[in-house]
Amino acid sequence: MDAKTCLEKLGYVGVLSFATVDRWGAPQVRCVSAVHYEPEALYFFTARGKDFCRELERDGRVQVMGYTKYKEMIRLSGRAEAVPETERTRWMDTIFSEQPYLANVYPGDTRHIGAIFCIRDFSIEYFNLGVKPIFRESWAVGNSRPRAKGYGITPDCIGCGRCRTACPQGAIDPGTPFRIRPENCLHCGACAEACPAGAVRPRGDDCHENAF
């Protein structure tokens, strides 16, 4: 699995959920299928008059979610930017040729009310719920700098093994300290709640580097 394959899988899903934040700070989610995929970029169409377009222009941060029939979750997080005017027609024609239904929604020249956005610097998270233990992986594309997620075990670990017993996926191995396998971690926090020493903490806090 890699970032390119994840983009291909999103293409097979077809209709994706796009999450933004409106001007009042409330979350907004839209289903979007007017999407074109490049190996390291995602282009999509919307109308300039839509709130969705204004939210993208104002902030740009967006999350894109797809879920396959094989219980795979693919989440793309990045910043959308409007393509230059000189490139808009090219990408609009590409998207309309790949999604013929759009000609019914925006017939003839009415398509020119549209805007094309591109997400180029992004992170991708892959999460497979259809296997045991679950499997997850993430990648950074372009200049993206994804945040660490999940849990790690610090040197405060006393080796009692309660975290390992509590883990629904058996994703913790004994050691000094015990170690959580990030590719199998559910991010549920059961290990942190079970730890009597407070040694299990969210990644990105002050967990020891070698604990991951």
Question: How would you portray this structure in words?
Answer:
By secondary structure, the protein is of the alpha+beta class. The protein folds into 2 domains: 3-141, Roll (Pnp Oxidase, Chain A); 151-205, Alpha-Beta Plaits. The chain has helices at 3-13, 51-58, 85-98, 102-105, 162-166, 190-194; strands spanning 16-21, 27-32, 35-38, 41-47, 61-67, 72-82, 114-128, 135-141, 151-153, 172-173, 179-180, 200-202. The strands form 3 sheets. Strands 1, 2, 3, 4, 5, 6, 7 and 8 form an 8-stranded antiparallel sheet that branches. Strands 9-12 form a two-stranded antiparallel sheet. The protein has a two-stranded antiparallel sheet with strand order 10-11. It is elongated. It starts with a helix and ends in a 10-residue tail after the last strand. Residues 207-212 have low confidence and may be disordered.
